[in-house]
Amino acid sequence: MSATNILYKANPTVYAQTNAAALASHALAANTGNAATITTITNEGLEIKKDVKYFDGASGYLVYPSTTTTTAISTTTTGATGKKLPAVIMIHENRGINDNIRSMANNLAKQAGYVILAADLFKGVSTNDPSQAIQLVKSVRGNPQEAISNLQAAVKYVSSLPFVDSSKVASIGWCFGGGQSLQLALHSEQHPLVATILYYGTPLVTDKQDLSKIKWPVLGIFRDHDQAIPLQQINVFKAALDADGITNQIHIYKGLGHAFANPSGANYAPKQTADAWQKTLAFLKKYV
Questions:
Q1: Strand-pair partners of 52
Q2: How far apart are the C-alpha atoms of 168 and 287, rounded to whole Å?
Q3: C-beta separation of 159 from 76 below 8 A
Q4: Which of 255, 281, 266 shows the shortest CA–CA distance to 114?
Q5: Which of 19, 88, 127, 240 has the most C-beta neighbours closer than 10 Å?
Q6: Assigned domain for 17 exists
Q7: Domain range enclosing 178
Q8: For residue range 103-144, what is the model confidence (pLDDT) as tens digits?
């Protein structure tokens, strides 16, 4: 697999915000002729949203497109659009599965038509308390094998769904979740992924031999003013991917600090976040 060398250091283009547009409503056509005629309207793009248990002590947030068929006498919603869909494992930041993660899952399912499972590494806990968030992260990093088993179970779960193409499963994560997205990539021998996405993931693995386990494209979204991941470390990460022949896109946004893509954070940068999201959608479209 040939390496793609892309180093993004500027933000010349401003994209529209990534909030998905509301779905258009639909109505039955008037039945003015034959009383025996039934008008049928099929509407794709609705969403099924639910919490699912996929691992011991963990309930993830599952969202996926569905098809609703409406006639004059009934409305039927099927589990998916009638075709096998790609899936994405979404991994939360250090605050757990919160409204922001659910919103991102909803948007990705709606915009790209994927099945999204937001995995839960904090056993149902979410928090706005920075001190508690640090403790939650420490508990996961203190037992890394459990976190890996959790994410592997998430891949296995979505792959078992009848409307998922099990050969097309990717992962995406932010901050702590970005590091976990990379860890999943390094432990996917039993079920290889098709793409890995990390937004400024920590810790960032840079060892060439470890990264050689990845056999699919990697998208990395970073910033140059982040004390957690120095620019030099990002460059080493990219060099290791290139040396291993791993197709990659590494984008570095200038002048931004930690968690710039989190709308609830102090460092939120909406224009750059929208740009990064468009790059994410294009990457998924190309490789998933």
A1: 60
A2: 9
A3: no
A4: 281
A5: 88
A6: no
A7: 7-11+39-287
A8: 999 999 999 999 999 999 999 999 999 999 999 999 999 999
